UniProtKB/TrEMBL annotation:
PROSITE patterns: DNAJ_2 (PS50076). Residues 228-239 have a biased composition (Basic residues). Gene3D superfamilies: DnaJ domain (1.10.287.110). The gene is DNAJC8. Suppresses polyglutamine (polyQ) aggregation of ATXN3 in neuronal cells. Residues 56-123 form the J domain. This is DnaJ homolog subfamily C member 8. It comes from Sparus aurata. Its main location: nucleus.
Length: 252
């Protein structure tokens, strides 16, 4: 690419054109992958790292994010039939897992709020890559170099957007799991405190009940003790009041 005066390129591909090229290539890949066999689709959905790859429902269903609801429904039907356990009786367990991934992605996209979140992640991935490309070109311009970056290649741009999108989906999932673990821990702690409070209240009720039931016995014991003490005191007092014995004088 020839540079114009001041180091600017004579021509470049606008970011909107890059994204449209990206979308076009995605559609070509979707068309290519749509003819995968049942086994190939199952392998795709259960490949290493699938727990994160499958966080993108559009990736799972291999459908354009801008697809209509009717197109989404048709794609789900076609793919779910392809990986259904009944159609893959030689490998029903893996087929079941693949089918569940497809079903989950479809149901998620049926929810307007969930679909919007997924689209937001995809758009955020694209915007990040565009910003990164802009910063690279800014640095090249500052250095007086040609404003050529590898992301000018539509395929490289597509891969960069894809990777960044997957990264964002993964980060959101990690944060979700962290929140879930924190909430679970807090619920567990609250439950333990609730049980402890209930047991304490039970012990206090039992102590009060036992205190009430044994009150009469304690009162009677105290009265008996007082009565015995009184009798003993009276007996001692009587012994002190006895007249002294008179000694008989001996005769001379």
């Amino acid at each position: 690419m020839m540079a114009a005066a001041g180091g600017e390129p004579s021509s470049h591909v606008p970011s909107d054109d890059l994204f449209q090229t990206f979308i076009s290539e995605v559609k070509q890949i979707e068309k290519r992958d749509s003819v995968l066999t049942s086994k190939q689709q199952i392998d795709r959905l259960l490949r290493p790292g699938a727990s994160y790859f499958n966080l993108n429902p559009f990736e799972v269903l291999q459908i354009d994010p801008e697809a209509t609801d009717d197109e989404l429904k048709k794609r789900f039907r076609a793919l779910s039939i392809l990986v259904h356990p009944d159609k893959n009786q030689d490998d029903p367990d893996r087929a079941q897992k693949a089918f569940e991934a497809v079903d989950k992605a479809y149901k998620l996209l049926l929810e307007p709020e969930q679909k919007k979140r997924a689209l937001d992640v995809i758009h955020a991935g694209k915007e990040y890559v565009e910003h990164m490309v802009k910063e690279k070109k800014k640095q090249l311009k500052k250095d007086g170099k040609l404003l050529d970056v590898e992301e000018d290649d539509p395929e490289v741009f597509r891969q960069a957007v894809y990777k960044q999108t997957m990264k964002l989906f993964a980060e959101l999932e990690i944060k979700r799991k962290e929140r879930e673990a924190k909430d679970m821990h807090e619920r567990k702690r609250a439950r333990e405190e609730e049980i402890e409070a209930a047991e304490k209240a039970k012990r206090e009720r039992e102590w009060q009940k036992n205190f009430e039931e044994t009150r009469d016995g304690r009162v009677d014991s105290w009265r008996t003790f007082q009565a015995k003490g009184k009798k003993t005191k009276e007996k001692k007092n009587r012994s002190f009041l006895k007249p002294p014995k008179v000694k008989m004088e001996q005769r001379e």
